[in-house]
């Protein structure tokens, strides 16, 4: 992994000789990037295949019924995110990460041998718990390690690794399914990812909670007294969801962003199939959006450290709205491919920048819980998006559902423009 030149002062040393900064913790940071790529791969095993399984194997013709697995995944992941932050503060980051991988072990087998749709839903409940525990913890651990100066860059690498793996696995499973069928071969990748992720987390990942404590010991007191020191989890939830303008704006934007992802995951493949695209080309489209999203975050996270967070988030939400509208208007592979590139670029502007903004505002003493609350809202968007798009598609058709989400995304970007304040007060030149 290539690290941009660091022109800041040397990494600060905290109590017990703990050093903060990307260069000082490069080995562990790189390992956590790899672990999060494996977390993303376990999600990517479903992106192309499950929507087609719902319709072609299990005979679910109603869109709302076919998207129940996304509702189960999103609701479970959202709730697990909330508890992941609290658990990692109480017991440490590494135990939560390992627990997440243990929960993931049965998922590929359930998807391979599911005799009914209920088994698929059960697998996605476990997948949601896994993603909530493991992805949330890698986010918190990277924030712990790098300190305040490289937070956007750290989130860019974390989310890039995860979503590049989602994209690569979505494309790979599409190609495998085109050659061998929808089951079992595509899900064997997920089994391999899970075994490797668990092994690395147990044997090589080190605890990072003391890094957060070292940062807290030298953290300046914020202007707003309610943002300092020890808060109850309820107080953290209220500040993140409502009271703080930046945190609440980030929370709603995160929810709408993942609402879009639920649409792309569950509805877009059905739209492409309805227009006669073969499975292999659907897999390419399913991979293109998270691929651009994943790779782009390595630039946008770093960029937000220089120019600030707010304007990148606003621009990203509006660009997503344009891209979703283009999917609704399109009828051919080239148009849809262009739309996926735009959607990936817009999401890349938003995704790591929102996490960095939460890290900017939240005090290290309760930052893990604030990240958990933010991710509760953000990943609740999976469930909301699946229900909303499924109901609208059943009532009015796929295209109307997609246009409705495009309008909602544009409105979310305007909320950020009006409500959020800049959380990076001294952007670097």
UniProtKB/TrEMBL annotation:
PANTHER family hit by this protein: INTEGRAL MEMBRANE TRANSPORT PROTEIN, RESISTANCE PROTEIN MDTM, PUTATIVE-RELATED-RELATED
Keyword 4Fe-4S attributed: no
Name of this protein: MFS transporter
Subcellular location: Cell membrane
The organism of origin for this protein: Streptomyces thermolineatus
Species lineage: Bacteria, Bacillati, Actinomycetota, Actinomycetes, Kitasatosporales
Any matching Pfam family: MFS_1
Topology with respect to the bilayer: Multi-pass membrane protein
Transmembrane segments: 26-44, 56-75, 96-113, 119-140, 160-181, 187-205, 312-329, 335-355, 402-421
Domain Major facilitator superfamily (MFS) profile, chain residue ranges per copy: 20-424
